[in-house]
Amino acid sequence: MLSNYVNASKVSGRPLTSLLVEALRLRFTGLKLGLSEYIDFQLYKDDISFVQKQKFAGQRAQAVIEDMLIDDYSKILSLDKVSMYGLLQGLNIPTPKIKATYRTLRPSCIAQIHSHQEMAEFLSDPTNLPCYVKRAFGAYGRGNVLIEESDGNTVKLANGVKESVKAFCNNTDDGRTLGWIFQEPLSSHKDIERLTGTAKVSGVRVHTFLGVSGVQVTRAMFKINQGQRDSDNFEHGASGNMLAAVDVETGQITRAIAGTGLEQVSLLKHPETGQSLVGFMLPFWQEIRRIVIDGQKAFPGFLCPGWDIAICNDGPKVLEVNAFGDIDLSQHAYRQPFVDEAFEALLAQRGLKNLLYSGNNDEVSPRNHRRGIRKHHWLW
User: Fold this and answer.
1) Confidence at residue 263, expressed as pLDDT on a 0 to 100 scale
2) What backbone torsions phi and psi does residue 210 show, to the nearest 5 degrees?
3) Residue range 232-264, pLDDT digits in tens
4) pLDDT of residue 175
5) I need a labelling partner for 39 at 20 to 30 A (CA). Which of 153, 213, 227, 338 fits?
6) Where would I find the Alpha-L-glutamate ligase-related protein ATP-grasp domain in this sequence (predicted)?
7) Is the distance from CB of 273 to CB of 197 less than 8 angstroms?
8) Residue 365 pLDDT
9) Which is it for the CA torsion 230, 233, 239, 240, positive or negative?
10) Strands 112-113 vs 98-102: parallel, antiparallel or unpaired
């Protein structure tokens, strides 16, 4: 970490002691940003005021925000994608079609695969392929793969890997009782494919906030798939994918970046295709806004969810609803704090702003009988 600070001093032209003092002040004031997070968000640069830097949130602040804004009773609707899709489809909100589930008990309207033999039979049917496979309970796209072909004995994945059906099943038999989803594969809208050079999904993460006077769209980040993975997840910069800030009113990209910390760079054009990133208009933007504003009302237990939307030729589809989502995506993309004045005003509407900066006691609320002061505001 010290070497990172030394390098940051060289890059910024600021004395090392100045960076260390500022980082320590941020660690013990404001939202108590971590020393490594100071580097990750490039706060050693002097293009942002110290007051703004105090609003940058890291893992500590995110845990507090999630404690305030996520209802514990509602978490399963985000954690289990089968339940999530069932709810969304019942409300006419578009999602990918589930072809089958594996190693999990589900309603009979969903085809279910229980064994290696049934898997071989499923994959032998050409109408079931290609097929995108992901955990019903999962995050960061871990384990997600696209099966392109199968003869019933072997499978060929989109990354070129071939393996036996038995080996593929063994790789998914990890004992998790919510199992796996086999769903229709999606491709990016033709304009996005032209921009990124790949048909693999580059989706958009949209944050909404359920205020007392209605739903507001607060942030939107375009997750730019570089084509090396079957997922567009940023993974705190580890995936190699890029991020872009989106104007929430128009759907226009206003800023794009790759990497984090000392390696982070701003981009005007896509490094492979040469197409302009800044100024690009996301297709179907007003339809996306309508979907997330309407869909937010189906999740009263998530006050600020993060919606992952795939933008396809036939329109947007909801990939998942995160109960909150990673706060770093917004801060990297916009180079602005997530907890800005507008967000604090939304918290204040619900009487939550002070909770962000207060400790969490262990008292049981007489209002709703929940434990902890951050849970006191829930009305049920």
Assistant:
1) 95
2) -90, 90
3) 989 888 888 999 999 999 999 999 999 999 999
4) 64
5) 227
6) 80-335
7) yes
8) 84
9) positive
10) parallel
Q: Which two tokens stand for residue 156?
A: 């060929």
pLDDT at residue 358 in the model: 78
Burial 294-331 (b: 16+ CB within 10 A, else e): ebbeebebbbbbbbbbbbbeeebbbbbbbbbbbbbbbb
Comparing CA positions, the residue from 290, 345, 280, 278 lying closest to residue 315 is: 290
Please name the residues in contact with 207: beta carbons below 8 A apart, sequence gap of 6 or more. Answer: 217, 218, 219, 220, 304, 305, 306, 307, 325, 330
Phi/psi for 329 (5° steps) reads -55, -50
The dihedral region occupied by 63, where left means phi > 0, alpha psi between -120 and 50, and beta the remainder, is: alpha
The domain 72-93+188-334 is placed in CATH, from the list 3.30.470.20, 3.90.180.10, 3.40.630.30, 3.30.70.270, at 3.30.470.20
What's the pLDDT score for residue 141? 65
Rg (CA), the chain: 22
Residue 222's pLDDT is 98
Residue 71 CA to residue 102 CA, distance in Å, equals 29
Best CA proximity match to 161, nearest among 147, 140, 172: 147
pLDDT of residue 174: 67
Contacts of 326 (CB under 8 A, 6+ apart): 62, 234, 236, 306
**Helix, strand, or coil (residue 31):** coil
Q: Which pLDDT value is given to residue 169?
A: 83
Task: Report how far apart the first and last C-alpha atoms of the chain are (Å, whole number).
Answer: 45
3-state SS assignment for residue 218? strand
Alpha-helical regions (H) of the chain: 2-12, 16-28, 35-40, 50-53, 59-69, 76-79, 81-90, 116-124, 165-172, 190-196, 285-296, 327-334, 341-349, 353-356
From-to residues of CATH 3.30.470.20 in the chain = 72-93+188-334
pLDDT at site 140:
66
